[in-house]
Amino acid sequence: MENFKRFLFFVCAAAVVGSLSIIFVLIWVLHYKEGLAWDGGAAEFNWHPVLMVAGFIFLQGTAIIIFRLPWTWACNKLVMKWIHASLHLSAFTLAVISTVAVFDFHNSAKIPNMYSLHSWLGLIAVVLYCLQIVVGVFLYLVPITPVPWRAAFMPFHVFFGTLLFVGVIAVALMGITEKLIFSLKSPKYSESPPEGIFVNVLGVLLVVFGALVVFTATRVPWKRPNDQVLHTLHTNEGGDDNVKAGPSLSQQLSDNADADADATDVRRRISKLDETN
Amino acid sequence: MENFKRFLFFVCAAAVVGSLSIIFVLIWVLHYKEGLAWDGGAAEFNWHPVLMVAGFIFLQGTAIIIFRLPWTWACNKLVMKWIHASLHLSAFTLAVISTVAVFDFHNSAKIPNMYSLHSWLGLIAVVLYCLQIVVGVFLYLVPITPVPWRAAFMPFHVFFGTLLFVGVIAVALMGITEKLIFSLKSPKYSESPPEGIFVNVLGVLLVVFGALVVFTATRVPWKRPNDQVLHTLHTNEGGDDNVKAGPSLSQQLSDNADADADATDVRRRISKLDETN
């Protein structure tokens, strides 16, 4: 891997900032708020931020960069796909439980559901995330899907996955804003009480975590070697729009060892091209 | 250009959704709110959402995809860079005026400044955007910068530019949430009054606009042809991390015609590689 130290710095930074976010959200609900319970009250609501941060954001981020970890490159790609899918499924499950918690709390407290922009975009994100998982499983885990389809849809799978991850963080920031305005009364949010400042820092941590994950995931030289080959062929052949490139892509998808050799070959050839220009 | 009709659809959709967002924010402040003025009151605050949507979001989005429009590919790259920089500078100017409007309003109404997560992230975004413009001008418009540096920093320039664009939309969504909670009193936001629903739709439009712009900007086959070549060399040579690739990149940066020919050449060679596998 190129610039392994830099990669390591980014992955470690993401792990530290992500873990810090979870610690911050736990301190928020356990120290500043009513703690955690499943009683229809405020303590049940508190599962909402905890599960969203630890599940929908941290686990989703982990699922996104799992293919980038060079220690996993020796593993069978199918095993890695299952781990990737399982992490996303866990994130989705926690997001659903988290959503149930907030609906329960609202219903007990006679607060209307689904009126705010946060709730609209949050529900849209959960539904689209579910759809992304279903489509992902059928395209990349069920063996009946034609391999050219897999290659053709990969850029869209990656784009929508990243978009959803970023979107979920944006929705979390809106949720933090709502909760601080509603719950801080004396002193009010506008008087910058310690809780307000503390949770603002949590928001900043979530943004930094998102930026680190997306940066790590989108750096082409840090991709799993056979994915680098796929990327090269996509970008130079029109890839996702050019299904006729499929058959040879399929051979590479089905054989990691060959694909790794191809990666070296593509690099060598482009290197020569560069030298001759 | 590959899939020109699909590209046209995405660009037109972005233009329509972006324009709709501006119309929505104008209806919000002119019909539902106090209109526009520069008097330190609520009407001055209203410049904040209007200029943020029309300037910081719509103009910034336009600046991002301007290089993708094939009608501009015949133009000199330097001219296009100036247009790109001017659009970003206009977006920044409007963002600053918009920020002044909200500070003025807060000071007149004795509302504290800079206590909310929206204000923290908003100010961070404005400062980083300014920094991005300054660095961008020195790297890509001032002729003293060594060309290998330009090539080496390009992926970071693109990544941080996209990150800032997405970040600004997230901050806008938080701002909408704040404003609706604070300003809707009778009926309250939770009672879903027409204004609440209308502005929620504005929020959804901003998310769709962001998604369309980022999708259009990140599709490699839609890049300006010489940028496609650069992307190929980056992704296969480690590009931004491998400065020794600089000298030949510099030749391509300085000569659009050669670079276009190179694009065809790279495609042909990779196509051959694909066929032989």
TrEMBL record, chains A, B:
Its cofactor is heme b. It holds the Pfam family Cytochrom_B561. Its main location: membrane. It is a multi-pass membrane protein. This is Plasma membrane ascorbate-dependent reductase CYBRD1. InterPro entries: CYB561/CYBRD1-like (IPR043205), Cyt_b561/ferric_Rdtase_TM (IPR006593). Residues 13-218 form the Cytochrome b561 domain. It is an enzyme of class 7 (translocase). The chain crosses the membrane at residues 7-30, 50-70, 82-103, 123-142, 154-177, 197-217. It catalyses: Fe(3+)(out) + L-ascorbate(in) = monodehydro-L-ascorbate radical(in) + Fe(2+)(out) + H(+); monodehydro-L-ascorbate radical(out) + L-ascorbate(in) = monodehydro-L-ascorbate radical(in) + L-ascorbate(out); Cu(2+)(out) + L-ascorbate(in) = Cu(+)(out) + monodehydro-L-ascorbate radical(in) + H(+). GO terms for molecular function: metal ion binding; transmembrane ascorbate ferrireductase activity. Residues 235-262 are annotated as: Disordered. Its EC number is 7.2.1.3. Homodimer. It is found in: Apical cell membrane.
